[in-house]
Design a protein that fits this description.
Shape: rod-shaped
Oligomer: single chain
CATH class of the largest domain: Mainly Alpha
Radius of gyration: 60 Å
Strand content: under 5%
CATH architecture of the largest domain: Orthogonal Bundle
CATH topology of the largest domain: Helix Hairpins
Order of helices and strands: HHHH
Length: about 230
């Protein structure tokens, strides 16, 4: 029995959580349900107020009739007194007292119904104003919710379009271009250096070559100039 009760409470809690999640996802439906409930209450109150107003009108008619009958009974009673007619006067006295009691009862009931009708009217006005405020609140709050959701979507989109990766990629490309540019410039400088080194090597080689040729030819003989040539 205890386990069954715990299971019932657990299922009730799960269902309540499910309902709350659905309410958060569909706030417009929650507002519409609240408005519908208040409209139904308004209709019930309006019917009750209509019944009270109808009874008040009915009592007011009965009260006017009772007062008219009371006035007529008092006139007849006065006439019987003038005639000193005991046979007619005693029933008229009883009739007058009954009509006075009826008038008093109807007056009290009419005053009570009048107060209830006024309260019903005030409640109807209050319910109508509350329904109007709730409808305005629904429009206003759903508009705020739509704006908030739009801002959240925008923020998520901006977060998804983060430029960090693009900046890192651009930096890598820039570094690669700079490195290749330096390599090309260094290659050009190395080419010029190789040219200088080759020219120096050629000059050294030529000097050695000339030296080798000179050694191979041997020492030069002294030049004898003839006298007659002199």
């Amino acid at each position: 029995m205890h386990a069954r009760s715990r299971l019932r409470h657990l299922l009730r809690g799960v269902f309540a959580q499910w309902v709350r999640r659905r309410e958060r996802r569909h706030p417009g439906a929650v507002y519409e349900a609240a408005i519908t409930e208040r409209v139904e209450q308004y209709e019930s109150l309006r019917r009750a107020a209509a019944g009270v107003i109808y009874l008040r009108g009915k009592l007011d008619t009965q009260l006017r009739d009772a007062r008219t009958q009371l006035e007529a009974a008092e006139l007849r009673l006065g006439a019987a007194l003038d005639r000193d007619d005991d046979a007619a006067g005693l029933p008229l006295v009883r009739r007058r007292e009954a009509l006075r009691a009826e008038v008093a009862r109807l007056t009290a009931e009419l005053e009570a119904l009048t107060g209830e009708a006024e309260v019903a009217k005030q409640n109807l006005i209050a319910f109508g104003e509350e329904i109007g405020r709730l409808r305005d609140e629904k429009v206003r709050m759903l508009a705020r919710l739509a704006n908030a959701r739009a801002r959240v979507r925008l923020q998520r989109t901006l977060n998804g379009l983060s430029t960090d990766a693009d900046v890192r990629a651009l930096e890598a490309v820039r570094e690669d271009i700079e490195r290749q540019s330096h390599e090309a410039h260094l290659g050009h400088e190395l080419g010029d250096l190789d040219g200088l080194r080759n020219a120096e090597a050629d000059a050294v080689a030529r000097a050695h070559w000339e030296e080798l040729k000179r050694v191979r030819r041997g020492p030069l003989l002294p030049m004898i100039i003839p006298q007659n040539a002199a």
